[in-house]
Amino acid sequence: MIRVAIDAMGGDYAPREVVHGAVLAAREYGVSVQLVGRPQDIETELKRHEIQGLNVSIVAASEVVAMDEKPSKAVLRKKDSSIVKAMAQVAQGDADCVVACGSTGAAAVAATFVIGRLPNILRCAIAAQMPTIHPNRCIVVDAGANVDCDANMLVQFGLMGSILYSGLNNVKRPRVGVLNIGAEETKGNDLVQAAYSLLKGRDDLNFIGFVEGRDYPMGKVDVVVTDGFTGNVSLKTAEGIAKMVNHMLRQELMSSMRGKMGGIIAKPAFKALKARVDPDEFGGAPLVGLKGVCVIAHGGSRHTAVKNAIRVACDMVRADVVGKIERSFRSAAEVKVTL
């Protein structure tokens, strides 16, 4: 049975929505759930659910890292915080993976300090899943953990993203591309040009070259490699466009009787579409490069998102993503790839 540690106090709707999602995951996926946080608060929420027969336990933590606190200082100061204790469950071997829904920065800092990076990994990176026209989602690495990157880091992001995508989707050689302002080899800044030179010709990657922001929604690439600044902007722009289209569609459907009737007829299709693009269905974004499995969910996650974040974490454990990344980077040569 996979053991999942969860920061029960993290996020805008904690602990209620976090506990709810954890209970759903324990029931649907048959996993062991460890809710980390203030016992009294967690117990109050557990009383709202039928947990008999489920493997649900509480790990006490007296402090909470707030969303508006500076991550590095808060994590170091609050050693008995729920986020630090949740990460410690993995570091100590008491849990197989961890899910956090609070501050992304705090989760990344706590994971790096407590769980630690794998040998030869330059930086951990956030691997965000994005919807495409195909059933499988693409993965954007990095989606916000590292604002400034060098070419060697982008190479590692590509390798880790490829291993993650293979593990989650059972695809042997996923297509890896570097995000750029054009697909031509001559375009882009010094960073992407250097990364291209390092990635080109590698036999351990299915590198397809440069890709544009419009390519990955159309399913032309499986793993998109970029720096954290560009990746985060791209991610949030896509989220904003999705919300805008949804809002505009609702406006048009409600503007006339014909539109309302059409909306009723098309309701099943709209429901299916929502499931394909809804961030809650993606669960969360893995933080790759760690010695353990860590999935970071959105701070505004409701119970469905929490449940699906747990699913993603468990899928990573089953696919041995961390072990495969570690074996791929055993050689120190992977750190500096002949610049």
How far is the N terminus from the C terminus?
A: 44 Å
Q: In the CATH hierarchy, what is the superfamily of the largest domain?
A: Isopropylmalate Dehydrogenase
Largest sheet: 11 strands, mixed
* Share of residues in helices: 40-55%
Q: Could you say which overall geometry the principal axes of the C-alpha atoms support?
A: globular
Major sheet: arrangement of strands: 3-2-1-4-11-10-5-6-9-7-8
Which class of secondary structure composition applies to the elements?
A: alpha/beta
Task: Please give the CATH class of the largest domain.
Answer: Alpha Beta
Instruction: Indicate the multimeric state.
Output: single chain
Question: How would you characterize the overall build of this protein?
Answer:
- The protein is α/β, with parallel strands linked by helices.
- The chain folds into two domains: 3-121 and 289-321, Isopropylmalate Dehydrogenase; 125-279, Isopropylmalate Dehydrogenase (3-Layer(aba) Sandwich), CATH 3.40.718.
- Helices cover 45% and strands 15% of the residues.
- The protein contains 13 helices and eleven strands.
- The protein has helices spanning 16-29, 39-46, 71-77, 82-91, 104-115, 151-169, 190-199, 228-253, 257-265, 267-277, 279-282, 303-318, 321-328; strands at residues 3-7, 32-37, 56-60, 97-100, 125-130, 138-141, 175-179, 206-211, 223-225, 285-288, 293-296.
- The chain has an eleven-stranded mixed beta sheet, sandwiched between helices.
- A hairpin with a 7-residue loop joins strand 5 (125-130) and strand 6.
- Helix 1 packs across helix 12 (303-318), helix 4 (82-91) packs parallel to helix 5 and helix 6 packs antiparallel against helix 13 (321-328).
- The protein is globular and about 60 Å long.
- The termini are far apart.
- Residues 334-339 have low confidence and may be disordered.
